[in-house]
């Protein structure tokens, strides 16, 4: 599933071709994805200027001047492609939704597994939307500080990695970037969140910000389905230090002339990658 850096990359690609423009036509090619497409999707957003494009967690939000907002979630395999009409293909496989702008841009929502979703709601009712109502803090917001992270973790009696993946606490972090941040902070993924010290929280906060910023600059990670809006892949997968590298030498241990390999365990059905030497579990020491 695309995580915060991938969704942010797509959002930034969308802004130049959508801000201030409007949709002249919307083709709805099937009745639903994970949920039914909202009533009025093909008509309500038409011919009204787009005044804002935002990201909340892993959701893309498009605000229209007439007080409506469109929410897009890419799910597991969703992609958004932007094509000038003159170069646009007739259609792509699994192309379920197509937006046509008033200046001949074509934005196609392609989703092979159909786990994505689209919602349409009054902008002033955003806080009541079930997808958005219970989301936690944005990790790139100024309110997300090391002190905030420390205070949050002190209330959580669950493994650290599980806590960081909980979108009710911190949004946008997924499996890739949590594994990478924990490695850079030297924290074991199974350590109880409540056990973090203030120094641990400072290191973890720094690692989260650093990893997200670097991933956005690299255009996200392409492992399977994710691509930019022009179809090109992201590049951050080439900079992963632990994710997907089970059995490979730990880069920190190799630099220190030690022989340690990256290990993989399963937590809540998801693979966790870490170095057992660099990320010792102090609770079990």
UniProtKB/TrEMBL annotation:
The record lists the catalysed reaction(s) as:
2'-deoxyribonucleotide-(2'-deoxyribose 5'-phosphate)-2'-deoxyribonucleotide-DNA = a 3'-end 2'-deoxyribonucleotide-(2,3-dehydro-2,3-deoxyribose 5'-phosphate)-DNA + a 5'-end 5'-phospho-2'-deoxyribonucleoside-DNA + H(+); Hydrolysis of DNA containing ring-opened 7-methylguanine residues, releasing 2,6-diamino-4-hydroxy-5-(N-methyl)formamidopyrimidine
Gene Ontology molecular function: class I DNA-(apurinic or apyrimidinic site) endonuclease activity; oxidized purine nucleobase lesion DNA N-glycosylase activity
Please give the coiled-coil regions recorded for this protein: none
EC number of this enzyme: 3.2.2.23, 4.2.99.18
Q: Where is the FPG-type domain?
A: 241-280
The alphabetized UniProt keywords are: DNA damage, DNA repair, DNA-binding, Glycosidase, Hydrolase, Lyase, Metal-binding, Multifunctional enzyme, Zinc, Zinc-finger
Q: Which CDD domains does the annotation name?
A: EcFpg-like_N (cd08966)
Residues binding DNA are: 94, 113
**What InterPro entries does its record include?**
FPG_cat, FPG_Glyclase, FPG_N, H2TH_FPG, Ribosomal_uS13-like_H2TH, Znf_DNA_glyclase/AP_lyase, Znf_FPG/IleRS
Does the record's keyword annotation contain DNA damage? yes
Q: Which cofactor does it need?
A: Zn(2+)
- In this protein, the active site sits at 2 (schiff-base intermediate with dna), 3 (proton donor), 58 (proton donor), 270 (proton donor)
What is the free-text note on the cofactor? Answer: Binds 1 zinc ion per subunit.
The Formamidopyrimidine-DNA glycosylase catalytic domain sits at 2-116
> What is an example of a Pfam family matching this protein?
H2TH
Assembly description = Monomer.
NCBIfam families associated with the record: fpg (TIGR00577), PRK01103.1 (NF002211)
The function of this protein is: Involved in base excision repair of DNA damaged by oxidation or by mutagenic agents. Acts as DNA glycosylase that recognizes and removes damaged bases. Has a preference for oxidized purines, such as 7,8-dihydro-8-oxoguanine (8-oxoG). Has AP (apurinic/apyrimidinic) lyase activity and introduces nicks in the DNA strand. Cleaves the DNA backbone by beta-delta elimination to generate a single-strand break at the site of the removed base with both 3'- and 5'-phosphates.
Q: Which family does it belong to?
A: Belongs to the FPG family.
What is the recorded name of this protein? Answer: Formamidopyrimidine-DNA glycosylase
Q: Which organism is it from?
A: Bombella pollinis
Query: What is this protein's gene name?
Result: mutM
